[in-house]
Amino acid sequence: MSGAAATADYRPALRAGVLLSEPLLHGPRTVHLVHHPGGDRSFEIGVREHFLLARMDGHRTLEELGTAYAREYGRRLGDAHWRQLLALLGTKGLLAGAPEHPAPPAAERPANRLLRGSLPLVADADATATRLHRAVRPLLAARWIVPLLVLIAAMEITLALHAGVLLDGAVTVLTHPVLLAGVFALLWLSTAAHELAHGITARHYGGTVGEIGLRWRLPMVIMYCTVDNYRYLATRWRRIHVAAAGAVMNALFLLPFFVWWLLAPDGATADALAGLLFLGSLHAFTMLIPLPPLDGYTIVCQAVGATGLAGSSRTYLTAVLRRDRTALAGHPPRARRVYAAYAATALASVAAALAVLAVLAHAVLTR
Questions:
Q1: CA–CA dist 239, 26 (Å, integer)
Q2: Which CATH class is domain 3-91?
């Protein structure tokens, strides 16, 4: 953007498809994310920059934007500031009329390797998600979701009351290779449904699915579904719904097997089903642990309105332990509460998960 363009009557406008996030905590600061419409590319800006970008609609002149800025922050931006800001937006391809900066094509991405890589399964992931959403859309209404959540809660309470039986079933599965292979295959299908649930729910709320494919870190091969713009959905609850959809699908996947287990007579079938229910529930709850990159972490970040929550909490706690008053003074009271609460929640969740795994390991080794 040339200096001549930064005149008082210039009317800047953001490129169609540019999205701005709500205010988010990041360390001691409040920031906003800016989403480029050419793919899953985001940029971080401050509150004052967001104030200006949110008003760049092609109708307001720089003079009008400057007046609004001065009224809000008590100072007027000079020509040098405008040139710097507009040049930055133009370089990143965020201004209407600026050259586009597309994401690297698939051919330029790093080649897949034998032990680690990924493979898209469909040419148009968003169209695939749209078709799947169209097929299951009625089930996403509250009149269906609420009863299903009640059924899931009833299932998990019942399973908790029969924890010993389920633990015995898990030991049976883990010590019999054929049963283990069958349960592993079912849990893999549950994981695939988990990923598609994220994409379908995001599509339900207006999100865009970027890719559906397979990712491998041998010997593990899992399905993945990326949502380009879930962080910019209209409300925080919608973003939480997208993040929680995977774990809910894991639990829904278990419901038919739960009914089967209730009706099955004592024996090998009941033991195998008990093992599947134990390991499947453990898998679903593991997804809710608030550590990156798990869904629970995304849910907590959205609930508290933060980005980079784990790193910010670690930095804050390090400052607390070192009694670094300078670093601590920069954190507003809300940031201190959020980071301390997140650290406590994460530690408690990890401790609970480790306790369950220790009980399971002990049962396998002693029964």
A1: 18
A2: alpha beta
Residue type, position 187, single letter: L
DSSP line for 98-118? SPP-PPPPGGGSPPP-SSEEE
Residue position matching structure tokens 């679903």: 284
Distances in whole angstroms, Cα of residue 134 to Cα of each of 72, 200, 223, 255, 306: 45, 9, 21, 23, 32
The kind and range of the H/E element at 243 are: helix 236-263
pLDDT in tens, 2-37: 444 446 788 999 998 899 999 999 999 999 999 988
**CA 118 vs CA 41, 191, 195, 220: distances in Å:** 19, 16, 15, 12
Tokens 């997804």 locate to 287
Radius of gyration of the chain (CA): 25
Give the chain's length. Answer: 367
Q: Are 267 and 260 in contact (CB under 8 A)?
A: no
Q: What is the pLDDT of residues 231-243, one digit of tens each?
A: 999 899 999 999 9
Q: Give the domain ranges of the chain.
A: 3-91, 113-366
